[in-house]
Amino acid sequence: MARKPRVHYEDAIYHVMARGNNRDRVFESEEDKAKYLKILADYKERYDFKLYAYVVMDNHVHLLLQVGKDPLAKIMQGIQQRYTQYYNWHHKHSGHVFEQRYKAFICEEESYIMALICYIHQNPVKANILEGINYSWSSHQAYVSRLQGLVNVEFILNILSIKPNEAMTKYLALVGTAVDRPKYKDEKEQEKETQKAWLQAETEKGQTELMWEQLVAKITVEEEVNQEKLIGKCRIRQVVAARKRLIYEAINRSIMTKMQLAKLLQIDPANITRIWQAKVGSKEIK
């Protein structure tokens, strides 16, 4: 019997694990690992997902990514098929390279996501690889150098702190703390929870859109600004001030998350955090 397709849950963050068939090596050389990351980058650009952490070991891969409109199944099918074609051609191999069903688990809590980043980056340490945490084929070095590109490091670091040095200190402290492998439910139970989360998300999406529209209309009237300019790129001082109020109230009323606002208003997540914290600070002073 064919497996049921996974439910697509837009904006969901997944911990994905893909292992070699029969747990065999699927990355024989550094060239193979570099090729997998190149394919990952190509599909990231094609499907506009966000990648928060990765590690490419000899016989498996861990990814922490957030999907957009395109489902995880479509993304992973493309990545795995492309690498399989490459591997079979270069290593005179035929048949499956990866296990047929990769594992994917939804991650919702911020603290859990942070723990997963640590767990992923600590994989080489636990495998007793000489490089340890500085393993060349994980995203740890991207965090240390704050390198923009394949990995969306700034969003995670800005959650830790908007002050660069403080964010890095907290990150290094996190990855220096031993983290056990996450305990997941079995796949059937996970699928049920994903379905439940999807249904809840669809319900909340309708409610969120209504509350957002009401908030935008309210601020448009009270601040006497044009609605299109309010949610656009207008730099008029009055509009900018109104937009900051909109961001603060949307977060304060739990209408939208910082991530959702950043995507909707096309503003860097770090700036969303700065606006929020500045408003919170001004409220506390008063």
Describe the structure.
One of its GO terms (molecular function) is DNA binding. InterPro entries: Transposase_17 (IPR002686), Transposase_17_sf (IPR036515). The relative contact order is 0.10. The protein is of the alpha+beta class. β2 and β3 (60-66) form a beta hairpin. The protein folds into two domains: 13-184, Transposase IS200-like (Alpha-Beta Plaits), CATH 3.30.70.1290; 200-285, Orthogonal Bundle (Chromosomal Replication Initiator Protein Dnaa, Chain: A), CATH 1.10.1750. It contains eleven helices and four strands; from the N terminus they run βαββαβααααααααα.
Quick recap:
This protein is an alpha+beta fold. The protein has helices spanning 30-47, 72-90, 110-126, 140-144, 153-160, 164-175, 187-222, 227-230, 237-252, 258-265, 269-285; strands spanning 13-19, 50-56, 60-66, 103-107.
Topology:
Layout: E1 13-19, H1 30-47, E2 50-56, E3 60-66, H2 72-90, E4 103-107, H3 110-126, H4 140-144, H5 153-160, H6 164-175, H7 187-222, H8 227-230, H9 237-252, H10 258-265, H11 269-285
Antiparallel strand pairs: 1-3, 1-4, 2-3
Helix pairs in contact: 1-2, 5-6, 7-9, 9-11, 10-11
